[in-house]
Structure formats: C-alpha cells, structure tokens
Amino acid sequence: MKVLVIDDNHDVARMIEEFLSRRGVIIDFINDGVRGLEYLKRENYDALIVDYRMPQIDGLEIAKYAKYERKVKKIIIITSDAEFKSEEYVILYKPFSMEILCEVLFSDKESCEVLS
Predict the structure, then answer these.
(1) Residue 116 in this model has a pLDDT that exceeds 70
(2) Which terminal Cβ of the chain has fewer Cβ within 10 Å, N or C?
(3) pLDDT digit string (tens) for 47-105?
(4) Pairwise CA distance, residues 68 & 19, whole Å
(5) Inter-axis angle of helices 33-42 and 59-68, to 10 degrees?
(6) Which DSSP state fits 9?
(7) Is residue 20 within a helix (H) or strand (E), and if so which, with residue range?
(8) ω before 95 within 30° of 0 (cis)?
(9) In 3D, which of 102, 38, 37, 40 has the Cα closest to residue 72?
(10) Is the pLDDT of residue 113 over 60?
(11) Domains present along the chain, CATH in parentheses
(12) Is residue 10 classed exposed, middle or buried when 0-12, 13-18 and 19+ CB atoms within 10 A define those classes?
C-alpha cells in the first residue's frame, strides 16, 4: 500500500510515517499542502492522510481532488476541529492513537467519524 501523508505539523506526520512504515506501508510525507497536491497530481496512491487545516490550501480541497480527479480509494482527514463533519471521508479527530489510524486505514469504510 502506498500512502501520501500531508500535514503541516511535522511531528504528527513523522509519527504517522514511522508507525505505518513499520507495518510495510510505503509513505510519502509532505509538510506543505501545495507541495502535497503536486505529489498527488504526479504519483498514484492507495490512500491519503491529510490535515484539515493548513496554510494556503486546506485538506478538504486536497481530499476532493484526490477522490474525484485521482480516484484515491481511502481518504482520511485528521483534524482537531470538533465542528468539522463529512459524510464523504473518514475523519479522525486529534488526538488519535496510531492503532486507530491503522485500523481505519485498513478497513473497508470509505466514510465515518472516529472520536479517539
């Protein structure tokens, strides 16, 4: 499985990268939404993990591009905004455990909210 992780919080993204790579997941980590969108345009990914709030471009915009233009099957939006809701994507509310992220990543669900 090849996953693109986009989060402007370097620590969160590195933690995700380390956890998933130990489980055999190939990770591209980008800490800038604009650069992440560029990666998404030129690479094929099985999944996208993206922070909802980032400077210049928000994660929802990136998620929509991934879903409708690149046909990425699994899209997980991570956020600390308890008001953010979506019926189209998997939402993980911060703080979340890496085990829950892994469970959601490998599940069949295309949309849900996870309060961790």
Answers:
(1) no
(2) C
(3) 999 999 999 999 999 999 999 999 999 999 999 999 999 889 999 998 889 999 998 89
(4) 28
(5) 10
(6) -
(7) helix 10-21
(8) yes
(9) 40
(10) no
(11) 2-115 (3.40.50.2300)
(12) exposed
